Structures are given as C-alpha cells and as structure tokens.
Amino acid sequence: VFMSFQLPEEIPGISVTNFLKYAKNKATGKPVKLFEFKEELAKYMEELNMNPKNMERSLNVGFSGGEKKKNEILQMLVLNPKLAILDETDSGLDVDAIRTVSKGIQMFKNENNAVLIITHNTKILASLKVDFVHILVNGKIVKTGTQELAKEIEEKGIDIVRVTLHV
Q: In sequence order, what are the beta bridge partners of 55?
C-alpha cells in the first residue's frame, strides 16, 4: 500500500535517490542495482517534467507544492504498490501540475493495481479515466456513480447531490 499526503513531509539529509532506493529495497526484498535504478528514476522524472537535479536534493526540502506532489507520484511509480491512496494529491496545484500528476497516475494504473483518490476538487478526475466516483458526507458514502457524476458536480456544483439526497 502506498499513501500520499496532502502535505508531504520534508526529510533533511536524505536524498530523493537514497530514500527511493531504500524504500524499493524494502518493498521488493531485493538489492537495488544503482545504475538501472538511476535510469528508471531519470525516465520517470522526465515523464513527470521533474528537474533531474531533484534526485540529489533532500526529500521535499525546499520543494514547491507541485514538486512535492510530483515527487510523491514518482515514489508511487518506482515502488509500484498494489494499492495507492492519494490524499488530495491535487491540492494547491496549478493546471499544468494537475495534468502532470494525472499523467503519472495513468502511467501507474493497470489491471494489477488500484488507485483511490481523495479530493474536494473534480478537476483532476476530468483528466483520468475513473471507474467509480463516491461522494462522502459525514464519513458515509451517500452517492456512487461513474465519471458522469464527477462531470455533473463540476457543472452544477455539489448542491446537486444535496438536492438529490434531500440533505
């Protein structure tokens, strides 16, 4: 299970490369071949429009909000979990960063894994092919639908759900 956070932690003194190398070793139980690993990181970072110099920076230290979110998507791609829970991964991102994060999610998603995205904003869902949309109110699922439900909320606002449910 992989979990991203609304406000990713900064870890001074541990580079992105070392953090991911250690995490991948622990996740797979196999030694990480450094040359292949750095190539994998470089490939993903290019896809996510990340500065390659970030590989040697301390984890999230001095990163912008968008860089932190992209870094979490990088972690998800490298660690390749069965389930990724993304808690407001779109929070505070501009339009371009949302596209990049969405691209990373699409790169990750396949028939062998699952992604749960928790968001207050439907914009990120517009660029993803989601299977289900669930609306929670007071910790309970009050409505479930398809991508169309997200589009309806984007067009008409969340009040459409309240009216339908008589909340």
A: none
What secondary structure letter does DSSP report for 152? H
Q: How far apart are CA 143 and CA 162, in angstroms?
A: 10
Say how far apart CA 127 and CA 49 lie, in whole Å.
17
Q: What is the pTM of this model?
A: 0.87
Q: Give helix then strand counts, H and E, for the chain.
A: 7, 7
Q: What is the 3-state secondary structure (H, E, C) of 42-97?
A: HHHHHHCCCCHHHHHCEECCCCCHHHHHHHHHHHHHHHCCCEEEEECCCCCCCHHH
- pLDDT tens for 118-157 read 888 888 887 888 888 888 878 888 888 888 888 888 888 7
**Count of CB atoms situated within 10 Å of the CB of 9:** 9
Q: Which amino acid makes up residue 146?
A: T
Token pair, residue 66, equals: 């968008």
| Cβ-based neighbours of 12, under 8 Å, separated by 6 or more | 58, 61
